[in-house]
Amino acid sequence: MNPSYYLFLAALLFTIGALGVLLRRNAILVFMSIELMLNSVNLTLVTFSRIRGTLDGQIMAFFVMVVAAAEVVIGLAIIMSIFRTRRSASVDDANLLKY
Amino acid sequence: MSALAAVSTGEAITFWVLGPLAVIAAVMMVLSRNAVHAALWLAGVMLALAGLYAAQDAPFLAAVQVIVYTGAVLMLFLFVLMLVGVDSSDSLVETLRGQRLASFVLGLGFAVLLISALAAGTDGGDGVGLEEVNAEGNVIGIARLLFTNYVFAFEITSALLITAALGAMVLAHKEKGPESLNQRQLSRARFASGHPHPLPGPGVFAEHDSTATAALLPDGSEAPGSVDAALSEAHTGDTGGSVHHR
Q1: Measured between beta carbons, which residues in chain B are less than 8 angstroms from residue A20?
Q2: pTM of the predicted structure, to 2 decimals
Q3: Tell me, which fold does domain B8-87 have in CATH?
Q4: Which residues contact B124 (CB under 8 A, 6 or more apart)?
Q5: Above 90 in pLDDT, residue B66?
Q6: How many beta-carbon contacts under 8 Å exist across A and B?
Q7: CB-based burial label for B50 (10 Å; 0-12, 13-18, 19+)
């Protein structure tokens, strides 16, 4: 049991989150997958902090959490306003600029 | 040395319990069709990660993870899910042909790439460990760094949070339309206008639609015979009100 196991776990979780972004089309679920990716990166930062023996990685993870909280607020507000005008939360329906 | 080994086995048990739980919950989050179930699975992932932070000498981050992520962010997700409508679940029709297969292949390739790069890049040692910097306590160590080296970033964060709050207010605010009158107010307004009776139908150039009002010819004169003989005799000279030529 050495700390690099955590890194492998984080890589796996990040891949699952990326797959969620690619596969799901409900904007809220895409957003949840992005949160999963952010969380797995936080796990990587905490592990690196432990491997290197400094707390800078934990500080970085803390800032990632703060920025993620702000990002979730804005992102969900955008999804809400899109839903209000288009009556749909699917990322495929917002295609007015396509053609 | 034996104490360290005991800590290590305890950590190994924590890892091998919480790690697979996190992976299973993440997979279920991606695969579950109901958005609320996905949110609950995401809560599972976040709680498992909080446990893993605690196992890695980061108790402060474990607490923040539970409070901020599972407490605030996930509740926000659930609120928006309820506002948008729980039954607005995904349609499972592929809009791009072969997209699902392509993303699986891409995901597999990405995982192999990441894991092989990590395996090549880490030496498999235990690392330095946080016993020394956590000697005073994890929270004190983080606070010391946060308010010295990272104090500028910390202050910038407050601007970011205020901007986010304002942005959410601007984006989610809904303008109210003009107040609609109720039936009582409408009725009062109608009698106050001096015109309580219904107006004539469209295309009628008169302010009165009584049968005693003569119809108008195209040149504006009254059409003879448009008013019943009995009525026109009874009300000679009174057409039931003024007829306006418009």
Answers
A1: 29-30
A2: 0.77
A3: Four Helix Bundle (Hemerythrin (Met), subunit A) (1.20.120)
A4: A2, A4
A5: yes
A6: 227
A7: buried
CA dist., res. B100 & res. B94, Å (int):
8
* Tally of CB atoms within 10 A around B160: 16
* Residue for token pair 């304002």: B166
Read off the tokens for B241.
Answer: 């009100």
Interval B214-246: pLDDT, tens: 777 888 788 887 887 777 665 554 444 445 444
Instruction: Please name the residue of chain A whose CA is at the shortest distance from the CA of residue B47.
Output: A39
- Beta-carbon contacts of B246 under 8 Å, excluding residues fewer than 6 positions away, are B205
Which of B35, B52, B83 lies closest to A6 in CB terms? B52
Are B127 and A79 inside 8 Å of each other by CB?
A: no
Domain boundaries, chain B: 8-87, 137-170, 196-245
Is the separation of the CB atoms in A17 and A51 below 8 Å? no
> CA–CA separation, B21 vs B26, rounded Å?
8
Measured CA to CA in angstroms, residue B141 lies from A44, A48, B128 at distances of 20, 16, 16
Q: What percent of chain B has pLDDT over 90?
A: 43
pLDDT at B205 over 80: no
Q: Which residue has the tokens 């004539």?
A: B200
Distance between B29 CA and the closest CA of chain A, angstroms: 8
Which of the residues A14, A23, A88 would you substitute to probe the B interface, choosing the one with the greatest number of B C-beta atoms within 10 Å?
A23
